[in-house]
Amino acid sequence: MQRKPKRPCSYPGCPELTDGRYCEKHEKEIEREYNRNNRTYKYLYNTARWKRLRIKFLKEHPLCEECKRNGVVTLAEVVDHIIPHKGNKELFWDEENLQALCKECHDSKTAKEDGRWGRKDEVYEY
């Protein structure tokens, strides 16, 4: 199967060739910058309480909800907030607001919600 030719990294001034948008070095830098500016509540995911809740929830809901809706059986890996909490602790801890998803479904849902696919008006304020 043919592959697309590599293209220059989109980071200003970087001559590296890559399959994605950024080279490996700048992909990490862009990701760090994105998380620092857009996910100030990330610390909640590192608490012991969240880690226990996540394990318990995945044991109770082992299959991806989105895949199940599409008639596919896939093991869930991620506990997702149905309504994005955006730092609201009450919504973050609400178990009624959680669903089990596979990584692919979670990444797709999150990208649509947080602007990773060109919906910048919902992420940035001008």
TrEMBL record:
Pfam family, one: HNH
Domain HNH nuclease: 52-107
Record keyword Magnesium present: no
Keyword Hydrolase recorded: yes
UniProt keywords, alphabetically: Hydrolase, Nuclease
Name of the protein in question: Putative HNH nuclease YajD
Family designation: Belongs to the HNH nuclease family.
Superkingdom classification of source: Bacteria
One Gene Ontology cellular component annotation held by this UniProt entry: cytosol
Matches recorded under SMART domains: HNHc
UniProt xrefs under Gene3D superfamilies: 1.10.30.50
GO molecular-function terms, A-Z: endonuclease activity; hydrolase activity; nucleic acid binding; zinc ion binding
